[in-house]
Design a protein that fits this description.
The protein is an alpha+beta fold. The protein has helices at 29-40, 74-77, 123-130, 151-161, 168-172, 174-178, 185-196, 202-212, 226-230, 237-250, and strands spanning 2-10, 13-21, 59-62, 65-68, 80-81, 93-94, 103-107, 114-116, 119-120. It is built from ten helices and nine strands. The chain is elongated.
């Protein structure tokens, strides 16, 4: 048996509930939450969809580390020592191996409004991403043509197209915690992805750079690489932010 402690919230009321779940080989944190909801407390709320680390819906704090519940193995996180002093800490060490003390702490993703229990309101996060206009403007009257991209450039862009908008990076970001207007790692990573895209015209690139050139943009990053550490798709937002800084400094 493994103990699952969950931060619950309904309106202004917050409390922790602890449940004992029956562990089986290969069990994920999401499966443990299903067991709690189906057998112990049907009022528990959490979000999920694909169960395959593709949609990003089940992002939450697991032992104070942002991650996807569907891909986090229960065996990997039970018994970890949690640094209670810093909710944004992402590096944890293994603690006691005493089965009686094996416990997993599950909380909603930080830096976003909690709707109920582990369900957070993603609207603010999506608005931040949309604010950098993450799309290519191609005139309707432009004739269709091939857009051949150099393989090396394609690989660079590919690192950032893997983002699934799960918001784990946003939940781990200390800059987003102290400034609600900060664009955040996901939006800035996408900004670099579209800056690299050869289909972007000069006017759009200039507009893109103006949108990220502020303390709420690339200059607000603390460069602590939390976002890189927690991304389930290995997207490196901090690298993108530093490259955008280089571009603006040169200009």
């Amino acid at each position: 048996m493994v103990r699952i402690t969950i931060l619950r919230q309904e309106g202004d009321r917050k409390w922790y509930d602890t449940f004992e779940v029956e562990e089986r080989p290969g069990m994920t944190v999401l499966e443990a939450l299903f067991q709690v909801q189906e057998r112990l407390d049907g009022s528990l709320c959490f979000r999920y969809s694909c169960r395959g680390a593709v949609c990003g819906s089940c992002a939450m704090l697991i032992n104070r580390r942002p991650g996807l519940a569907c891909r986090t193995q229960l065996s990997d996180v039970k018994g970890e020592v949690i640094d209670q002093s810093d909710k944004h800490r992402v590096l944890l060490k293994k603690g006691s191996q005493d089965p009686k003390k094996e416990e997993v702490l599950v909380e909603p993703l930080p830096n976003l409004k909690v709707i109920r229990d582990l369900v957070v309101d993603m609207e603010h996060f999506y608005r931040l991403v949309d604010s950098i206009k993450p799309w290519i403007n191609i005139p309707d009257d432009k004739s269709p043509q091939e857009n051949i991209i150099d393989p090396e450039l394609q690989m660079q862009i590919g690192r950032y197209t893997n983002c699934i908008l799960c918001s784990t990076c946003h939940g781990s970001c200390p800059a987003a915690a102290r400034n609600g207007k900060y664009l955040g790692p996901a939006a800035l990573a996408k900004a670099w992805r579209f800056y690299l895209d050869p289909r972007s015209n000069k006017e759009d690139l200039a507009d893109l750079l103006s949108r990220v050139d502020s303390k709420e943009g690339i200059w607000g990053c603390d460069v602590v690489y939390n976002c890189v550490s927690v991304c389930p798709r290995k997207v490196p937002p901090t690298t993108a932010i530093l490259k955008l800084r280089d571009v603006l400094e040169k200009e």
